[in-house]
Each structure stands twice: as C-alpha cells, then as structure tokens.
Write a structure and sequence with these properties.
Elements (H helix, E strand, L loop, with lengths): L1 H22 L4 E3 L9 E3 L2 E9 L2 H10 L5 H11 L10 H14 L3 H23 L2 H9 L11 E8 L13 H13 L7 E7 L2 E14 L3
Parallel strand pairs: 3-4, 4-6
Antiparallel strand pairs: 1-2, 2-3, 5-6
Helix pairs in contact: 1-7, 3-4, 4-5
C-alpha cells in the first residue's frame, strides 16, 4: 500500500509538471476544463498527452522481426550457464530487469559481451525510431489494453535513460532535460502538427493524428 501511494503521488505531480511545460509554450493552448481525451491544442490540433518509456514489448517484437532471440531468453540462458539463481515467480518485466542488472554486474567477458549486444540493438532501434517514429506510434495504438482503448489524437512523450533503461521513470522529474526537449520539439513544429496514421484494432481500422517526442538521457 505504501509503495502504491508513493508511486501514485510521484506520477501525479510529475505529470502536472510536464503538462505545465507544454502549456507555457506559445504554440500550445490548454484545454479549458476537463475535456475528455484532450490535454491541450497545438496549433489548433487537439492532443491527449501520454508519458511513457520505450516499450519492452516493442523491443521484443523488433528483435523477433530481426530474427534475434528475445532479451529474456538470452538472459535466462546466461543465468543457467553461470548458475545464477532467479525467481520464476517474477513478472516478465521484473525478471528482465533483474537478470539484466545481474549480467551487467558480472565480471566475466561473456556477461559483458551479452550486455553490450543488447544495448547496441536497443540504441540502434532508438536511433531509427527517432528518424521515423511511425512504426512505434502504430505499435502503441495497436497494443492498448481493452479497457484503455481509444483512438483519439495522442502525443507520446517517450523518456529513455540510455545508461539504465530500467531507470527511465526517474526522468519524469528531470525538469531541465524535459524543458529542453519539449521546448525544442514545439519550437520546430510545423503549422500542421502531427502525423496522419492508420492502425488496426479488433479488426477495425482507425485514423489518427499523432506524434512522438523522444527524450534521452545520454550515458555517462
């Protein structure tokens, strides 16, 4: 319960701080009152802001398309090879984070080479996504949960700590970094913001206007 309250408090206030950064920009018009699925307008185009991180599911899908085994499969294999214990009861996301950290801290050359390979794939994928984010945006729409499904215009703010991917949540409080990244995006936005995209969900096709801001914290 204590962890849930702390997490909710953190997410609530950092979300307010991030929304305030957008609303302080002259290209942005805040939504008046509580308008469902609209946080603000950018040059008269309505957007629902979604703050998230580089999706582990997206990385997994991209590795599969590249004929690469999943990170979790490789890390489990590594753990068994070095007799590293891990709990099978952990969720996939927690187990991935746990094994990644254990491999990164292991002194063997095999361990370090594995982590370097995983990091290289992720960074290459992030660079490609920064150039053309359409594939990621479509994935984010098509992989919504049933209860949270929506086809409104969305602006995705993706936060990535390149030194520790699993600590990216901490960047929600990095005001100078956020202010710089969001400001740069809004300063250079076109007169007609967003990307027109189609996505499929539950056998139906939807059309949206969406975009993504990727803010990265460089590795040390």
């Amino acid at each position: 319960m204590r962890g849930y309250v702390l997490c909710s408090w953190y997410n609530h206030w950092t979300s307010i701080i991030i929304e305030d950064i957008f609303r302080d920009h002259p290209a942005v018009l805040p939504a008046v009152g509580l308008i469902k699925k609209i946080d603000f307008f950018i040059r008269d185009i309505p957007f629902d802001l979604k703050v998230t991180y580089f999706p582990e599911g997206y990385i997994k899908d991209c590795r599969r398309l590249a004929n690469e085994r999943s990170e979790l499969t490789l890390l489990k294999q590594w753990a068994r090879e070095f007799d590293i214990r891990f709990s099978q009861e952990l969720s996939e996301s927690l187990l991935l984070s746990d094994l990644w950290k254990k491999a990164r801290d292991h002194p063997s050359a095999t361990s370090q080479n594995l982590i370097r390979e995983l990091i290289y794939f992720r960074r290459q994928l992030i660079e490609h996504t920064q150039i053309n984010p359409d594939r990621l945006i479509t994935w984010l729409y098509e992989n919504q949960g049933v209860r949270r499904f929506d086809a409104s215009n969305r602006l995705f703010l993706i936060l990535i700590d390149l030194d520790d991917f699993f600590a990216s949540w901490k960047l929600k409080r990095a005001h100078p970094l956020l202010n710089s990244g969001i400001g740069n995006f809004l300063d250079n936005i076109s007169a007609s913001p967003g990307r027109g995209l189609n996505f499929n969900w539950n056998r139906e096709c939807y059309t949206v206007v969406s975009d993504v801001i990727i803010i990265t914290k460089p590795p040390r």
